[in-house]
Amino acid sequence: MGHFLGSFTVKSIITLILVSCQTPLIGQEISYDQVIDYMEQLRSDHDLPGISVAVAVDGEIVFSEGVGYAELDNRTPATGRTVHNVGSVSKVFAVVGLMQLVETGLIDLDATLQRYMPYYPEQPSPITIRHILTHTSGIRHYRNGEFGPYGLLKFRHYDSFEEATRLWRDDPLVYDPGTAWMYSSHAHNLQHGIVESVTDAKYEEYLKYNVFEPAGMMATQFDVPSRVVNNRGKGYVRDETGQFINAPNEDPSYKYAGGGILSNVEDMVRLALAINDGRLLDRQTVTEMHTPQIDPSIREYGTNTTLGHEQALAWFIRTDQAGRRYPSHTGTVKGTRSFLANFADQGVVVALQVNSLPFDSARYGEAIAQMFLGNR
To answer: Whole domain around residue 359: which residue ranges?
Structure first.
């Protein structure tokens, strides 16, 4: 039986009865069984250990479920509360916290990095906060070999963000800021240092008290390997024979803002709901955050290819086959893949997680959204 949220009231009991009768999901033309069947089909087609999905409609989570396994050692079932590192979906968690400080005037999107992080090296062309949030800074992405022999530096814990930036910050820019687009998690990770510099607070504590808790995201926290985390799942890769093995581990302390936050699909949906109903940001700030920021003619660096999405502040603005534009983001880390899509105008939010690769989470997450969008 599906997991539906809320206190155990008469409404909850009625909802459970409706599910058992396989009637449509809370005003939808889609049934619980149809969503589960699709998830099971995806799991079979892609040979995945597990899939978790949560969906909200008109401000309420109406579906939260998993199929398969959250982890294979004990064959723990996947649910809507299975916790994984959400990878680069962390970027949109982080940008909400940063935009709160833009709203209060503590951060200027067009100020240079050195205003907030004096330790960041001066560049021939200035890099602004807007550049790092739109992947137009010229700061490189991760590269093979940067974590040393056997990747041992991936296991190092960094007690300060400034220390973590020493790994890459003196490298030359790949291109002049603002002249091209190139995905860069190193750039986005700088949100960590910027927020700490203007708040004088530890980054996790800032996000906890200003983003996670106000949004009701009680399962969301930084991915600290030493912590005991309720409902934590595992990600998997395949060996040369095609068998599942544990994905290589790492300490994400160098990249909390860009790819180091633990969450589940329910909390991912709660973030979008809190954005939509104004609990985290003013409407004007949300509009700015979701507005495309770069010239459509800008090419992906090193190619003659235009982007397959519109680039807002951290968020990717995608367009579905019906022409609906919506902010979203994907994430990939440690054998997992995540996706968050916010069809705010239509009142539908979808989050998806799987724990093996490859998997096109944006494609199939959007397909699940279509099941709930109907003619909205």
So the answer is: 27-373
